[in-house]
Write a structure and sequence with these properties.
globular, 181 residues, Rossmann fold, two-stranded antiparallel ribbon, 51% helix
Length: 181
């Protein structure tokens, strides 16, 4: 199966994906690495990662990532993927194509409180993944403005700060969802 974690920047989906992968021996397929192949220079001559802003750009990133799934599915029976998955057309396209290699797609929408989001955005700034918290907040708000929430049938998981109990609770939600419960 393929486990997909969606949510806005700062909601903790990547941290959860990494923790689940480590705890349960899963392969974490990082879609962000596919985005990093495209860059431009900003006004000061520094590299700037191009974020896929339109559905068409996101579809292109997903199609590029999906090319690896044929081989990946032979190496790993279950993988975990995280991305915003905040737009319906690209999200459903990705899930439809992923099913060809992995069968069931388990999709969990991750949400978080603003304090935890702020802490995560500050960590992104400190690690160099964003130039400023304000820039990360703008990216988050841009995604929120374009947000097409998944249907109510998609399980939601509220995540605050890292805690082994929360990772285990998310794993239990994934297992229950896989069983149809």
């Amino acid at each position: 199966m393929i486990i997909c974690l969606g949510g806005l920047l700062g909601d903790g989906r990547k941290q959860l994906a990494n923790r689940l992968a480590m705890r349960f021996g899963l392969h974490h397929f990082d879609i962000d690495r596919k985005k990093l192949r495209e860059f431009s220079l900003d006004g000061t001559g520094n590299f700037k990662v191009l974020q896929p802003d339109t559905d068409e750009e996101r579809l292109r990133v997903y199609d590029f990532a999906l090319k690896e799934f044929s081989l990946l599915s032979k190496l790993h029976s279950t993988i975990i993927v995280d991305d915003t998955f905040h737009r319906e057309i690209p999200r459903e396209h990705f899930f439809s194509e992923a099913r060809k290699y992995y069968g069931p797609v388990i999709f969990i929408w991750i949400e978080s409180d603003e304090i935890s989001v702020g802490e995560r955005l500050e960590r992104l700034r400190k690690s160099g993944m964003t130039t400023s918290v304000r820039e990360a907040e703008r990216r988050r708000e841009r995604s929120r403005a374009l947000l097409q929430l998944p249907p109510p049938s998609v399980p939601r998981f509220f995540y605050t700060t890292y805690d082994k109990k929360q990772v285990l609770a998310l794993w239990e939600l994934i297992q229950n969802t896989a069983k149809g419960g």
